[in-house]
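Sample pair:
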Amino acid sequence: IAEQRLRESEEKFRTIAEHSIIGITILQDSKIKYANEAMTRINGYTIEEMMDSTPLELIEQVYIEDREIVKNRLRRRLIGDQNLPDIASYRITTKNGEIKWVESYSKTITYQDKFADLALIMDVTEQNKAQEKLKESEERLKFLVTNNPAMIYTSKVVGDYGATFISDNVQKKWGYSSEDFVSNSEFWLNHIHPDDKEHVLSALSDIIEKGLIVIYDYRFKLKDGSYRWMRDESKLVKDEQGNPIEIIGSVIDINERKIAEQKLK
């Protein structure tokens, strides 16, 4: 009965493995004893070519810069390191020379009455490319925002119109951190020149009530105590039902221009 159950278990494993989109290999007695079809699609080698491959031959398929990672994992498995992570990420070189990123999950199992190493291999090349593109895009955006002469912000549509976000270049421009604005909803209004506050509140009211894109100027108190003229361009963002969500805008320093205009008057 035990032998029958073992055979049934192995048959179930093979059925699942053959229909899996994840590459599966079993290493036993320092040789590959099983590989599924998905593995052939990942590395380009036939099952026959993979069978009886040794660990050394498998390491040669690993991209040269990542081989030490895999060698180190094999050494740690051989000495029974309990702290070895089950999952590893590295590159392989396929039969036709293509470089792919894979994630490997390894586990010790019993296969045909003997201990063996089961490895599940997943091709994550496209996911890694997408993540890399996203990272590059985020870095470009961060560079543009940080080095932009304008400060980008979002703010509440009610109450004191407190900032919910402001770009990090505010520190360089005004001397305050973005956290100063976000953590204190009254921070922005409290630093507008008293003579300009009524004008600013009127502009914000037009944004909310009329849904206009509004451009307005005001003096803002910097951390050093001085006031400088700013030009703010703001618009209202609504949800699908037409309800106001937030104000989004940008602020630029127009102090020199404003002073020059005043001198001409």
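The chain has a mean pLDDT of 89.
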